[in-house]
Amino acid sequence: MSGFVVKKISKSFGAVKALDEVNFSAEHGEIHAILGENGAGKSTLIKILSGVQQADEGTITLNGKELRFKSPKEALACGIGTVFQELSLMQDLTVAQNIFFEHYPKSKGIIIDKKLLREKALELFQKYDIMDIDPDIRTNQLSLSQQQMVEIIKVISREPSIIILDEATSALTQNRVHWLLDLARKLADKNKMILFISHRLQETRQNCDRVTVLRNGRDVGVRTLNEVDNDELVSLMIGRKLSAYFPEWKPMASEQPQLEAKSLTIDKYLNNVTFTLRKGEVLGVGGLAGQGQVPLFLALAGIRHATGEIMLDGRKIVLRNPGDALENGITLIPEDRSTEGLIQTMSIRINLLLPSLSIFSKWGFLNRKQSERAIEEAIERLEIKMGSSDDMVMSLSGGNQQKVLISKYLMLNPKVFLMLDPTRGVDVGTKSEMFRLVRKLAEEGNSVLFYSTDLSELTGICDRVMVMYDNSVFDTLVGEEITKENILKASVGESIRITQ
After folding, report:
1. For residue range 17-45, what is the model confidence (pLDDT) as tens digits?
2. Were 36 and a residue from 40, 50, 90, 107 both cysteine, which residue would form a disulfide, CB within 3.0 to 4.6 Å?
3. Mind listing the domains of the chain with CATH numbers?
């Protein structure tokens, strides 16, 4: 008998049936993947298994015992711990305080023992191979990747029988993705059950034993991963064959420079970065995480100050703030859409309109007819799946939230798109749509600077790939040089060219 069994789980929101008699099971010692497009029902299922929402029908059993819980705290008490896609850490608390929140070690059962708190955090870090995080540092001083690691340890510290990893790799740098995949296997070897949700098929294939696929709120297949190929998985997810993951395209870039950076430098973060982004070009940015890619994008978006020069269409521009960048036609699609790109508690309509208010307003009055037409066109252009534009952004799936984020800047008709890992946490079908959008933007004469932690994306849609190493540009690959192997070599400071 399976250790964990979900039977005929259904959930409706008004007239919309999010889950329709979903069945699922996992064994002790297994890493079981749950795949599906955004909107397939994964998020709803995870919320029910985590106690965030309650099912309308169905049962959940663990080791033959039916479980009933109405909150994440109760679910955890039943042995189910969830690392949610969106961070739940309290930014003003220390790392150790976040990890042991609600179960602080105390002296005499009353006073929080700060020394013991630090010691226990260090024990966990040593046990799970974390060497670069100080338990006493405030969480808001950590990178997104480090915060995700803290979130993972916070859940594991409670010793649950079932660990749900909901897009847990999407915020991690490449080396930390390997850390998590190794950790998941070690936990499974200790008889834990790991439920693994990721839009990265390669991670799923390398790490998981079996996979359950959801589509339109129903379970449509369970497969053993060593007996199924990616084409079949994608077909199960989207209900049809995906003709091509990456679009067919021809290089359209002109020799005309659109954006030029000359000796951009930020002390300790960026070192004399010089490059040219041509009109109609998709220029990829690769390299191991932490090699200056994010500071570069932030400097070009006017968020961080860098010395050196930035040229746009042959003229020097000064970027003192993000407003200056937007006025010059440079827009940033940020790394974390939830905290940096969208206002989750506001409507889709307001989020789309915010950057464009000055375009649709005169003397402080909004031209409602004009703005509504632009919003409708933006929603149609990227086929944003939603109920109403008055719904809050947080009600959308991750992929549709990303579409809202891109759409709101498309409404500005910028010249240069700075895309900072734009497919993070996005399903296979939506990724394919985004790749086509990126190439279409280039065909229309826009320029795209495209950073991705997925090497296949860099090789699949970029005209050139600029690889960063030690906070500077190490090499720029063109044509047949653009391979995963060459990007990896340049990422560690190894030249792909034979020198005499």
Report:
1. 889 999 999 999 999 999 887 778 888 99
2. 40
3. 4-238 (3.40.50.300), 257-491 (3.40.50.300)
